[in-house]
Amino acid sequence: MLPPIPNRLSRIDATTLDQHFFLQPTDACFYIWEYTRRVGYHASPTNSLIANFKKKPLRIVDNPPEQSHKQRAIHHCAAALRALIERSWLETQATLVPVPGSKLPGHPDHDDRLIQLLQRAFQNYALDARPLIEQTQSTRADHERSARQRFDELIEITRINEAAAQPTRPILVVVDDVLNTGKHFKVAEQLLAQRFPSATIRGLFLARCRHQSAAPASP
Fold first, then answer.
1. Vertex 76, ends 103 and 200: CA angle to 5°?
2. Is residue 4 part of a domain?
């Protein structure tokens, strides 16, 4: 089962900001669905969708059913973006900036799922989507670590891709699959603001990570 596509994007606000440690009240971050951490793919249609969207290339390379699950997830997310983002605004105002994956191009597990997503979502649009942010080395993904990578560690190995840094549209939209702490968005925002000081920077996520509330204490 796939999660239904909502009528509009949701925005991080005062009721959700404290669940995303690095975000500030001035950050404009938008999302489609809500994802619950540490409960598995079976917990909700969104959890299943994100799990399929994130399937590793090495896991699915010789597994057609797994490849099909991933492509179905990309297709559904693309349909949501196409339905929720106004074409005229996208074609005139926005440059889309996918967050780089943890593995560099050439690594067996390099995953270009965000590029695939944007190209499929906005096929036949006058799309400006570019890898303006890149990492200088492959790392372990945060969700695979016992201790998450620190902000200063991530920004040290992240840079502007100058080969793609020709003039942009006025709004830079940092695109990622899941908003958790907001660390990757803030690294991208800091680098983009330094390189393009006149640009407005926003975040766009397939899902925001909703943290389960603690269970009530027993009487």
1. 65
2. no
Q: Is the pTM of this model over 0.85?
A: yes
Do 151 and 187 contact (CB within 8 A), yes or no?
yes
Crossing angle of helices 64-84 and 45-53, rounded to 10°: 110
Taking alpha carbons only, the member of 41, 40, 37, 34 closest to residue 16 is 34
What CATH code is carried by the domain that includes residue 62?
A: 3.40.50
Opening angle at CA 79, ends 205 and 24, nearest 5:
15
Ordered DSSP codes for 2-25:
PPPPPSS-EE--TTTGGGSTT--T
Q: What angle do CA 117, 97, 78 make, to 5 degrees?
A: 20
Please check whether residue 119 lies inside any domain of the structure. Answer: yes
Number of domains comprising the chain: 1
What are the pLDDT digits (tens) for 117-134? 999 999 999 999 999 999
> Considering the domain boundaries, does residue 14 fall inside one?
yes
Domain-located, residue 3: no
For residue 63, the one-letter residue type is N
Compute φ and ψ for 5, nearest 5 degrees: -85, 125
As beta bridge partners, residue 129 has: 96
- Domain assignment of residue 65, given as a range: 10-142+149-210
Instruction: Report CA Rg, the chain.
Output: 17
Express each pLDDT in 185-195 by its tens digit: 999 999 999 99
